Amino acid sequence: MIYLAERQVSKINITMKEIQEVSEEKEKEKEKEKEKEDLDKKDTAISAVDLDHVQDSGQENGQDDVDKENSVQISKSNQEIIQYNQKRERRMTAYERVSYDLSNDHKCVKEITLGKRIGFYRIRGELGSGNFSQVKMGIHVLTKEKVAIKILDKTKLDQKTQRLLSREISNMEKVHHPNIIRLYEVVETLAKLHIVMEYAGGGELFNKISNEGKFPEEEAKPIYAQVVAAVQHMHSMNIIHRDLKAENVFYAGPKLVKLGDFGFSTISRSEEMLNTFCGSPPYAAPELFKDESYYGLYVDVWAMGILLYFMVTGIMPFRSDTVAKLKKSILEGQFTIPSYVSDSCQFLIRGILRLVPQDRFTMNELCRSDWLNHVDFPEAHEPYSLNMSDAGAHMGESEKEAHKILSDLGISKEHYQSGGLRDSRSSITGTYRIILHKVHRRKSGYHDLLSGNEQETVVNEVKKKEEKRKMRPISSREPKSKFCTIL
Asked: Is the pLDDT of residue 230 over 80?
């Protein structure tokens, strides 16, 4: 009996010991978990250098093997956490950081929810608006480049408008000229479509003339020549603009303009005829009012004549209060040119604004005119790839430089060779196009190009001049154009 009792007591002691050991292990696990939580909250840890110092100190102080082993185990756990955080920080490139913030940064998510951010772009103030769209300024967060973002409500786009929009994007991607607004990226959400383009911060040619009056002819020549060069480049690629006007010519610098708004553009060969009325009535050629088919090239040439007249006089050649009267005036083709306009300029205007399309000056004849003699016409860029994955081994120097900059931002070959980056609907493609444009801009020789604070300075100067103009007596102000009120 005594023996059995002793065995029973022994079993109880063993069980109690096991329970105690299990309990102690659980307590240790809890302590480790709590320790890890504290490390995560404070986002601090013992560095590898500190660990070596602790280990060295332990050896110098002659700590026993058990204490040393326990210390190393705890420090090793801490070190693993540190190494993970350091590795994460070391691998987080600029591109990865922006991509991570899009879904994890509270401020970024809030901006997206409020419509103040889309993709890699922070959206700022409004630049303009139309029937179906708004144009706002944006900032590309990776390159810090200012952009213009055309925002369209998809619910208001019918099939015809969608076709025009698709054509606009396609035609903008085909042209490569320093005097044409560039397309960077297309960002689509459930409700809206965002077309991200080059930002020209100096405002419209129309506003400049309306606020400051007509150009002296010597100042008008290089500006007009840039528009001529842009249109000639488009026509060489069989692209017809169909909406050439001063409102669609934008200042990117004091002496640098860009042609934009390809919303009515189309593809048409010289022998092909079109039948859709497009554009603004004051710039419309007579054949557009006859409900007949027309040749796109001649329509663009006519609009160039109206633009030249407006630039050197500050008024329109055909003026009326209603579209019906304007139509009658244009079909008659009668207009007068102020006597202060030079003979060579008058000859050019009359050579363009002829009623019969085939009788008008061609773009080549326009370039060779006496009025534009000795004026430089900017040349198109050398052919280059708009998509990173298409560049291949035949990259030019500008493309190689753009790829190097992308690599510095953390965008590697793996990113753009993984597929799906062959069009404008990609943040990587958008970034590449912006960087490539910056490289072209630096190499182009246009030192008058504005950027950053300089663009804001030009805009502020325009506002100041407008305020001064309003303060002058009405009789002393420059004449303004008479447009149809519906336009």
From this structure: yes
